[in-house]
Design a protein that fits this description.
By secondary structure, the protein is mostly helical. It has one domain: MetI-like (MetI-like fold). The chain contains eight helices and no strands. The protein is flat and about 60 Å long.
Length: 182
C-alpha cells in the first residue's frame, strides 16, 4: 500500500512528476509545475485510480481462475450451435463466473471501504477535508482529537453501511441460487 502510494505521489508530483513531464513533452505546456492535488476532486480521482490499481491483481487472478474452471466442452457445444465469441461469453462464461464476479466485487468493496493509509499519506484527507473518508474522519476527529465518542459514532455508521452492503450481497446470492435451482 505504502509503496504504491509513494509511486503515485511521484507520478503526480508538481515538480518532478513523470505525468507532468510527459504532458509538457507532448505539447501541453499548461501542465508545467501543475499541482494535481490542489482540488478535492482531482485528489479523490487520483486516490480512486490508485486504489483500483491496487485491487486489479486480486480481481484478475480470481476471475481468471473462474474462467479456467469452465469446462471446454461447453465452449465446443456453443461453437457447434453457431455461437460467436460474445454469445459464448454471455451464455457459457458469464453464468459460470457470475457468482465469483459478485464475490470479487463484494470483497473489493469491503476492503476499499476501510481505506486509510493511501488517503492519509497523500494529503491527510485534504485539501480542505475534500478527500476525508469515514476512516480518516474517525482518526482525525475521534482519535487524534480525543473525541472518542465521535470515533465510536463513526464506527457504528461504518458498520451499518457495511451491514447494508452485506445484506444486499446476501440477497443477490440467495436470488442467484434460487435461479440455479430451477
Amino acid at each position: 500500500m505504502l509503496s504504491t502510494t509513494t509511486v503515485f505521489q511521484f507520478l503526480f508530483d508538481q515538480n518532478y512528476g513523470i505525468l507532468n513531464k510527459t504532458l509538457v513533452n507532448l505539447g501541453f505546456t499548461g501542465f508545467t509545475h501543475y499541482d494535481w492535488f490542489t482540488t478535492s476532486f482531482s485528489t479523490l480521482t487520483i486516490i480512486t485510480i490508485m486504489i483500483a490499481w491496487q485491487g486489479i491483481p486480486f480481481a484478475a487472478f480470481t476471475l481468471y481462475a473462474g474462467m479456467v474452471a469452465v469446462p471446454g466442452d461447453l465452449y465446443e457445444a456453443a461453437s457447434i450451435d453457431g455461437a460467436r465469441a460474445f454469445q459464448a461469453f454471455r451464455s457459457v462464461t458469464w453464468p459460470a463466473i457470475r457468482s465469483i464476479f459478485m464475490l470479487t466485487v463484494f470483497l473489493e468493496v469491503l476492503w476499499d471501504f476501510k481505506v486509510f493509509t493511501q488517503i492519509w499519506v497523500i494529503r491527510q484527507g485534504g485539501p480542505d477535508s475534500g478527500s476525508t473518508t469515514l476512516s480518516v474522519l474517525q482518526y482525525l476527529d475521534g482519535i487524534a482529537g480525543n473525541h472518542y465518542g465521535v470515533a465510536a459514532s463513526v464506527s457504528v455508521v461504518m458498520i451499518l453501511i457495511l451491514a447494508v452492503i452485506t445484506a444486499q450481497y446476501m440477497r443477490m446470492l440467495v436470488r442467484s441460487q434460487e435461479v440455479d435451482l430451477t
